[in-house]
Amino acid sequence: MTSTEKVTANRTQAAADRQLPAGLPPELLVHAQRSETLEFDLLDRTWDLLPGVWPPYISPETKGFTDWLPYPVGGSFLEVGSGCGVTSVTAALRGVAQVTALDITQEAVDNTLLNAARHGVAENVRALRSDVFAALGPDERFDVIYWDSNALLAPENFTYTHYMQRAIMDAGYVSHRSFLVDGPRHLTDGGRLFLGFNDSGDWDKLAELEEEAGLIRTELGVLEFVSNGSNANFRLLEYLTKA
């Protein structure tokens, strides 16, 4: 493939990714079409939101979970699926010395770094493009690992065509399996593993993965949320290894 053909192919894929994806709730469609950078307020701060990044202000979990999480002052914190970086940047602002933010899209990585710079913690925040833990070194360890997951179970052969699908769906729960099975391997001694999950997810499938990983679930809190008359509560879970 020539360089011109590569550019054309990339533009074709980008155009396809901008098409409105099937299965999105109506309230998300306006965000899926957004092409401009926005500013929004959350947790008493103003944040930048780039095109192609999930808007964390449309549901309560980013604000709620970011407030609830314990931050190891002087320690290390890893966020999977950082989005625009609200939680990772807040971790640094609350005294975490080394923050690593992972996301599967480059737009989210760039957005996290942009907000880290905006709030003066760029030296404390590292952002990497990564499918769950793939970009980490095998020996990297963290005091706290957290993921506000894309809880909706999609078929194993599901093909993503838009970033918003990745934000709310996990094909075959492959990412959830990786988080639960591999997450404890990246914890320091005494480290803690947290998952944000919601009632649109498949609790039976999640329980299967917890059993496979040898983990016990504890619910730390629930955020009640109603969208279009349907209950979609968000829950912060912590995992402990079975004795």
Describe it for me?
This protein is of the alpha/beta class. It has one domain: Vaccinia Virus protein VP39 (Rossmann fold, 3-Layer(aba) Sandwich), CATH 3.40.50. Helix content is 32%, strand content 30%. The strands form four sheets. A seven-stranded mixed β-sheet has the order 5-4-3-6-9-13-10, sandwiched between helices. Helix 4 links the parallel strand 3 and strand 4 (98-103). Helix 3 (61-68) runs parallel beside helix 4 and helix 7 (174-182) runs parallel beside helix 8 (203-213). It is globular, with a radius of gyration of 18 Å. Mean pLDDT is 88; it is low at 3-20.
List keywords for this structure.
Rossmann fold; globular; two-stranded antiparallel sheet; methyltransferase activity; single chain; 8 helices; alpha/beta; 13 strands; disordered N terminus; 7-stranded mixed β-sheet; 243 residues
CATH architecture: 3-Layer(aba) Sandwich
What structural class is derived from the secondary structure elements? alpha/beta
The counted number of beta strands is 13
CATH topology term: Rossmann fold
Span between termini: 55 Å
CATH top-level class = Alpha Beta
How many separate helices?
Answer: 8
Unreliable stretches covering 5 or more consecutive residues: 3-20
Outline the biggest β-sheet: 7 strands, mixed
CATH superfamily: Vaccinia Virus protein VP39
Range of strand content = 25-35%
- Global Rg: 18 Å
What would you call the shape? globular
- Structural domain tally: 1
Order of helices and strands, N to C?
HHEEHEHEHEEEHEHEHEEEE
The residue fraction in helices comes out at 25-40%
The order of strands across the largest sheet is: 5-4-3-6-9-13-10
